[in-house]
Structure formats: structure tokens, C-alpha cells
Write a structure and sequence with these properties.
Layout: H1 13-29, H2 34-41, H3 45-58, E1 63-66, E2 71-74, H4 87-96, H5 127-139, E3 141-148, E4 157-169, E5 174-180, E6 185-190, E7 194-203, H6 212-215, E8 217-224, H7 230-239, E9 247-252, H8 256-262, E10 265-266, E11 280-282, H9 285-288
Parallel strand pairs: 10-11
Antiparallel strand pairs: 1-2, 3-4, 3-7, 4-5, 5-6, 8-9, 8-11
Helix pairs in contact: 1-3, 2-3
Length: 297
């Protein structure tokens, strides 16, 4: 941690939130501006300037003003002082569009309700790698990566130039959606398999609008497994809040396979999987399979 009298407990929470945001934005996007703070927290430009000045006083060697971007960028000796910048802490904030975490009451449920998540093994890259990825997405730049593919033909690390446009959380691991210059198409890349990344100065030539499977949506039509008892089928329909026999889920074509996996849908032709483990089957298979063939058994 940077050396300064910046014990989080000695700073009011409302102020500490903004200091955490300054740190997170600077490290992961490469720049923090006065307007970023003012817009995110609904404060005046003058108040945002005061926050940046306070941060500079508390951690004088972390940020450097860069006139070309009208903001502060991390120094070569940058170290987090107020917030946890690990991918495990930051990615959920990005997913929920929240600027900060770690309120003083985090160990005492604010709403009086305990919520427990499932412990999962970490499948995330180093924070320096994630920062380069986020900067490439935010600034619409090309990204140079070294990537471990599970393809049987690609057992070694591969250097790739990709153009990422979005992060994807499938509930078990994180991906980036990107144009792959090597294969001339849009693909998903698992974050944890990216062992090195550099955000290039070269502008990306593609974006979301060119990614048809990202822009187009289809509706999954699901129904309870035919091998379940009638009572279980009806209970399952109640569970999903539907009155007819069809559970409809609108989803981007690029995400179809992940949704099928997360909902444990039996995608076999003869519905031969254990109905107690795979409680749903797909009604409109012919429409869906062309966009998610890897998820079909």
C-alpha cells in the first residue's frame, strides 16, 4: 500500500467511496477525470476537484495529471491505497454497474437479511491483464494477447490481436467478446486463459454493431422435462412464473449456449438425461441449434 495517513477507517464513508472510485477508474480504465467523479456521484465539478486534490495529498505518488486527456493517469509506482483492485472484487462491480464496494456495514446486513453465495475457485486473470482488457474495450482499441486455447490443435500459448467490445459473465467464469483478426470472426475468449495483454494505440476497426450474433436476439422456448411427473412439471412452471407450458427467455444469440448450460437444459435429441438434474427441455431446437451448436449433445 502507498505510504500515507490514509487509513480508510479515519475517512468518512461518503468520501472514501469517491477515493475508491478514483483509484479503480485510474487503474482499470487508465484515466480518471473530474467529470467522471461529478457524473457518477452527482456532485459539482468543484467538489470533484476537491476529491482529486484530497487523493493527491493522501497518496501523492499514485496519479499524474496528463493534459492531453484532461485527467489523471496512474504513475509507474501506482499502488492501491483505498480499495481492493483484484479482479474478483472489481468485476462484480462492473457487472452491477456500481462504483464502489466495501461499505462500513458490509459485515452487518444493511437490510437485515443474510445472503450467502456459492464458493467457487478463481478463474480470473491478473489485475494488470484485466486493466489492459478494460482499457481496450473502453477506448475502442486493438488488444494484443497471449492466450491458452483448449483446442486440441492449439496446445501452446498463442499470440492474437483481437478487438474486444464487451465483457460476459456466464455465472461460472468471465469472457470477453471480441473480433479475432486471425479467424476473421467474433468469438468469446475466457479471461483466465489470457496470460498477457497489451492495449495497443491502434483503433479497433470493429464494434458491437458488426457482431450480428451479439446484436440479434432470439427467444428460447423451454418446457419441463417430459420424464418428470405431472406434479413436478406443474410445480416447475409455477417456479418460473408461467401459466402455460412454455417458459420464454429472450437472449442474445451469442449467449445462447451459456444460458442453456446455466439452466441445465437437456439438449439431447431423445431427452435422455436425468430429468431430476436437467429439468427443462428445448422446444424450438431447430431455431436455436445453429447459433449454439457446442451446447447441444
Amino acid at each position: 500500500m502507498a505510504q500515507a495517513d490514509n487509513n480508510p477507517k479515519s475517512i468518512k464513508w461518503i468520501t472514501r467511496q469517491r477515493l475508491q472510485y478514483i483509484e479503480l477508474m485510474a487503474f482499470y480504465t487508465g484515466v480518471i477525470t473530474r467529470s467522471d467523479i461529478a457524473r457518477t456521484f452527482g456532485i459539482s465539478d468543484a467538489a470533484a476537484t476537491k476529491d482529486l486534490k484530497l487523493y493527491g495529498q493522501l497518496v501523492p505518488d499514485n496519479l499524474i495529471y496528463k493534459h492531453s486527456v484532461f485527467g489523471f493517469v496512474p504513475s509507474s509506482t501506482f499502488k492501491e491505497a483505498f480499495t481492493d483492485l483484484s479482479p474478483a472484487a472489481v468485476l462484480p462491480l462492473i457487472a452491477s454497474n456500481m462504483p464502489t464496494a466495501g461499505a462500513p456495514a458490509e459485515n452487518n446486513p444493511v437490510y437485515g437479511v443474510t445472503v450467502e453465495g456459492l464458493p467457487m475457485p478463481s478463474r480470473l486473470p491478473d489485475k494488470e491483464v484485466l486493466a489492459q482488457i478494460i482499457q481496450a474495450i473502453k477506448n475502442h482499441k486493438k488488444l494484443k494477447t497471449r492466450y491458452h486455447s483448449l483446442s486440441k490443435d492449439n496446445k501452446e500459448e498463442q499470440e492474437r490481436i483481437i478487438e474486444p467490445h464487451s465483457l460476459i459473465n456466464n455465472g461460472l467464469r468471465w469472457h470477453i467478446r471480441a473480433y479475432n483478426e486471425q479467424s476473421f470472426d467474433f468469438r468469446d475468449f475466457v479471461l483466465s486463459r489470457i496470460v498477457a495483454a497489451t492495449c495497443l494505440d491502434e483503433d479497433a476497426e470493429s464494434n458491437q454493431a458488426y457482431d450480428d450474433d451479439w446484436m440479434e436476439t432470439v427467444t428460447l422456448e423451454l418446457t419441463p422435462h417430459t420424464q418428470l411427473s405431472e406434479q413436478k412439471r406443474q410445480n416447475l412452471l409455477i417456479d418460473y412464473g408461467v401459466e402455460n407450458n412454455i417458459i420464454e427467455v429472450e437472449v442474445r444469440r451469442a449467449l445462447l449456449g451459456y444460458v442453456l448450460q446455466r439452466l441445465s437444459v437437456d439438449t439431447t435429441l431423445d431427452h435422455s438425461l436425468n430429468p431430476n438434474a436437467y429439468q427443462l427441455i428445448l422446444v424450438n431446437r431447430e431455431e436455436i441449434e445453429p447459433y449454439a451448436g457446442w451446447a447441444f449433445l
